[in-house]
Amino acid sequence: MTIIDRVAAFCHEHQLLTPNDTVVVAVSGGADSVCMLDILLRFAPALNLKLHVAHLNHQLRGDAATADAEFVRSLAQRWQLPVTIKQVDVAQLAHQQKRSVEDAARTARYQFLRQVAHKIHAEKIAVGHNADDQSETVLLHFLRGAGVDGLRGMLAAAPLPDSHAVLIRPLLDIPRAEIEAYCRAENLSFRTDATNRDENYTRNRIRHSLLPVLETFNPNIRAALRRTAALMQADFPLLERETDRAWQFVVKTALPQAIIFDREDWHSLPAGAQARILRRAVGQLRGSPTDIDFRHITGALSFLKGSDVGAMMALPHGLTLRVGYTEYTLATVDYRPPPPDMPLLAADETVSLAVPGNTSLPAGQWMVRTALLDTATVSAETLRRRPPWRAFFDADCIGTPVLRPRRPGDTFAPFGLDGQRQRLKKFMIDRKIPASLRNHIPLLVAENGEICWVCGWRTAHPCRITPATERVLSVEFMQKSVNEFTH
Predict the structure, then answer these.
(1) Does residue 38 or residue 362 have the better pLDDT?
(2) Strands of 402-404's sheet, edge to edge?
């Protein structure tokens, strides 16, 4: 089969092109992109493809880069194709963003291609990655410690973040030597980038130094690396399905700024599932940044396995991982959780309650309704089945109560412990009340200063209803939007 036939078969197998597609063709001026443009031109009449040439001058090679841009412009004009050419100072971008020149160039290039695709309403963006690029990519990911996701290498077709266009790689199955031979046979001139020999770039060191050494062990190492990519791509959908199931099981809340995991469910998952979920969560929050690598993920897993409540770990790209009583939260540093759906007080507030009557809390969303009841109307079943934000007390023991937050040294005698007292701080810790709420939980305090209720959690022994109780005080927190109350 000729290269043209093989590319056609590859495009058909992976559904890279459909009739009437508008395709942005990324042309650097090198052999790969020139070959790709020539072959796509041959496909265009039968598929009614509309091709648009795009070239980004990275301004890294001075006059040579300018000459590349002019070569691409001339090529497009000769083949009567529309062309968009732009220049970006990639070295300056890399300095400003504190990233490698390679990474900054890649980011700038894809951003440019997305912009062109958006402007002309293109469905596809074609780039000239070839089979040798695939071998180098798999090896590069292996050296960085990648798992299945990384060892898949490059995909024949992949969605681009923030774009409706699909990135396609028509030459991904064709080795570089065959591409250059095609260009010579078809008299296609192309540009040679001198920086492709510069071994200050990691990919070039892999291409010119590491792969030749590996070929002394296995002359077919490049094909073996591509087979690895194909095997990983075949396994990936199965892993993704299992990750989907685990995600539904363990994720309590997924927000634009935070992913919250159920702590107990998290620890029931195998480490491999935890790692995949954590990577996916990072991707959702930050778009799969390349410098969240194996050591970050394993470090995060160790942190979650052995850290106490309240611990926090910083991750790259402004992400934090926090340990709660019942959840783990991966979030951006500027994430602020919504206020809890419960009545809270400011740290220095004291609220006198009307008895009987309704009292609004200062925050305005909640009110407290108190009522004096006859003991005959309050059955044991009513006491047992009361909701968390309603409680009953001996009215004569409690007097006219107030609400206040905790104070240093507070103690109380929880109901059920026969009057045994304990520090309020220890009670809140034992009940796993989040530290951020402890200074704001309302306490119902009797006239004599006795804490009668850690509201929402536990009433106190001294204020309980006994056979000697003559009047019952009902205290109920209600949201103001609720018009009907339970008595």
Answers:
(1) 38
(2) 351-352, 402-404, 443-445, 451-454, 458-459
* Domain match, 42 and 88 both: yes
For residues 432 and 319, membership in a common domain is answered with no
| Same-domain pairing of 158 and 253 | no
Q: Residue 61's domain is classified under what CATH number?
A: 3.40.50.620
Long-range contacts of residues 274-281, Cβ cutoff 8 Å, at least 24 apart: 274/301, 274/304, 275/147, 275/301, 276/239, 276/243, 276/246, 277/243, 277/246, 277/247, 277/250, 277/251, 278/330, 279/149, 280/243, 280/247, 281/251, 281/330
| Most confidently modeled range among 284-293, 303-312, 444-453 | 444-453
Q: Are strands 50-57 and 83-87 parallel, antiparallel or unpaired?
A: parallel
Residue at which a domain ends, from 217, 240, 261:
217
- Written as six digits, the tokens of 303 are 């942190």
In this structure, the answer to whether residues 69 and 132 fall within a common structural domain is yes
Residues 77-110: tens digit of each pLDDT = 999 999 999 999 988 988 888 888 888 888 899 9
How far CA 191 is from CA of 24, 197, 408, in Å, comes to: 20, 14, 76
Do 358 and 320 share a structural domain?
A: no
Q: Are residues 396 and 474 in the same domain?
A: yes
Closest of 123, 129, 137 to residue 109, by C-alpha: 129
Smallest CA-to-CA distance from 285 within 246, 322, 259, 250 is with: 259
- State the residue for tokens 């044991």: 380
Q: Is the pLDDT of residue 150 over 90?
A: no
Query: Would you say residue 299 has pLDDT above 60?
Result: yes
pLDDT tens by residue, 388-427: 899 999 999 999 999 999 999 999 999 988 889 999 999 9
Q: What is the CA radius of gyration of the chain?
A: 33
My answer on whether 391 and 359 are in the same domain is: yes
Residue-range definition of the domain harbouring residue 292: 249-332
Asked if residue 233 is part of any domain, the answer here is no
Measured between alpha carbons, how far is 178 from 36 in angstroms, rounded to an integer? 12
- The predicted model scores a pTM of 0.67
Strand pairing class (312-315; 50-57):
unpaired
Q: Are 200 and 157 in contact (CB under 8 A)?
A: no
Kind plus residue range of the DSSP H or E element containing 57: strand 50-57
